[in-house]
Each structure stands twice: as structure tokens, then as C-alpha cells.
Amino acid sequence: MNPGPESPQQDPPAAPAEADAADGSERPRGGPSWLLLAGVSLLVMVLVRGFLVQSFYVPSGSMEPTIQPGDRILVNKLVSGSDLRRGDIVVFDGTTSFAAADRSPHQDNGLIGRTLSGAASFVGINLGEQDFVKRVIGLPGDHVVCCDAHGRLTVNGTPLSEPYLLSGDKPSELTFDVTVPAGRLWVMGDHRSDSADSRSHLGDPGGGTVRLTDVIGRASVRYWPLTRMGGFTTPRALAGIPRASTP
């Protein structure tokens, strides 16, 4: 009787790739872990915040109606002092100039307040009391005066038209005559009757002006609330002012 066809032989089952790493076998390579991705994302966020853009929460009404309490804004940190123009809205560190005034941030000390503050800090929303947002009125060397016969501010002899002021506010209740020193800015809030700005520090070192080196950046866009999302533009009314002579 002829033997039947030879049955095909099967290879022994392969050992699981991850059965034992001690025998020198290689584990299969997987994709990057979620921890690595999270780390890279965090690094990118830190770099963006540190060098390109930063988010700020504005709790006060000193810049109404342009910026209202509760608004969140993004600040372009690539703007240098030489790039600033009259009418720009800037955020600056007021530790050396404005630290004792207009301390409007209010933090809730309850559980919800602490939780929200921690989350806001993580995503870059600054809740500190040393940063301020104001509008640039005078550049280095500018002669800023309040007020002319019609109650208007003048810069280098040119009267300002200020459509951004809060309705009913005067350009200033306080009179002043200032020449902005080199390397500094004269800044004011749009809600002039409720803004502790350069006018409030006329008797301080620097005469109320802010150092260019203290400017964090130019406010570029409001991203919250969504109903008021939009960018900030420099008023044309300030564009035609003649430049001051070099201080």
C-alpha cells in the first residue's frame, strides 16, 4: 500500500515579540507615546508664549470702550520699541512706573477662583498685578500738552482727534505739558476719567512715562468674548502727526 501524500509541516509558533526582553530579542517599535507628544506640545506652547505671542486677561475698565472688563487679548511680542506708533495699544510691565496705581486685577480666593486662575496661568492668561494695558499717545521726543483752547490734547503742536475715547469723557481733566524722554512712552487709557496712566505719575521718576524696555508687546487681537472677536487698528487720526526732533 502506497504511503499517503506527505503532510506539510508547519513552522513552530513564533514566540510573542514582547514575551521576554532578557533574551536579547527586539521589541517591535511603536509610534511616539502620548507623553512625548504632550511634552512637545507643551514645549511649543512655552516657546510661542515666550517669544511670539502672549495672552492677557483684562479685568479693568480703564481702556473702555475699546477693551472691556473680562476681555482676553493676544499681544504680539515681536514688536520692538522702534516699531511702535502713536495710537498703538500696548501691554507693559509697570513694576518700575505704575506698580502702585490702577491695580485692577481681582482674583477670587475661593476654590473656583483658584482653579480658574491656575488654568488661566497654564494657558498664558496673565492675572498678575504688574502688567498694564494703555494706548501710546507720545513717542520719544514728542511734546504732549493738555489742552488747547478746544480742550484737545496736542502732540508736537497738532491737536488730536480721539474717536476711541469713552463717550462723555474729556481728553483729560488734568492739565500737563510733557516732553517724552528718549527711550520712553507717554501712555493713556481710553476711559480717561477712570484710568491711572502717565498723568498719575507726573511727579515720579520718569515723569509718568514708560520705558520702551518695559513694553511686553502690542495688543493685536481680542479673542474672547467671541461676540467681540477682532483685531485692534491704529487710528488714522494719529498718523499725520509730524515726527518730533530726536530727543
From TrEMBL:
<dbReference type="GO" id="GO:0004252">
    <property type="term" value="F:serine-type endopeptidase activity"/>
</dbReference>
<feature type="active site">
    <location>
        <position position="62"/>
    </location>
</feature>
<keyword id="KW-0378">Hydrolase</keyword>
<feature type="domain" description="Peptidase S26">
    <location>
        <begin position="34"/>
        <end position="224"/>
    </location>
</feature>
<keyword id="KW-0645">Protease</keyword>
<feature type="transmembrane region" description="Helical">
    <location>
        <begin position="34"/>
        <end position="53"/>
    </location>
</feature>
<dbReference type="GO" id="GO:0005886">
    <property type="term" value="C:plasma membrane"/>
</dbReference>
<keyword id="KW-0472">Membrane</keyword>
<dbReference type="InterPro" id="IPR036286">
    <property type="entry name" value="LexA/Signal_pep-like_sf"/>
</dbReference>
<comment type="similarity">
    <text>Belongs to the peptidase S26 family.</text>
</comment>
<dbReference type="InterPro" id="IPR019758">
    <property type="entry name" value="Pept_S26A_signal_pept_1_CS"/>
</dbReference>
<dbReference type="GO" id="GO:0009003">
    <property type="term" value="F:signal peptidase activity"/>
</dbReference>
<protein>
    <recommendedName>
        <fullName>Signal peptidase I</fullName>
        <ecNumber>3.4.21.89</ecNumber>
    </recommendedName>
</protein>
<keyword id="KW-1133">Transmembrane helix</keyword>
<dbReference type="Pfam" id="PF10502">
    <property type="entry name" value="Peptidase_S26"/>
</dbReference>
<feature type="active site">
    <location>
        <position position="134"/>
    </location>
</feature>
<dbReference type="GO" id="GO:0006465">
    <property type="term" value="P:signal peptide processing"/>
</dbReference>
<dbReference type="InterPro" id="IPR019533">
    <property type="entry name" value="Peptidase_S26"/>
</dbReference>
<keyword id="KW-0812">Transmembrane</keyword>
<feature type="region of interest" description="Disordered">
    <location>
        <begin position="1"/>
        <end position="28"/>
    </location>
</feature>
<dbReference type="InterPro" id="IPR000223">
    <property type="entry name" value="Pept_S26A_signal_pept_1"/>
</dbReference>
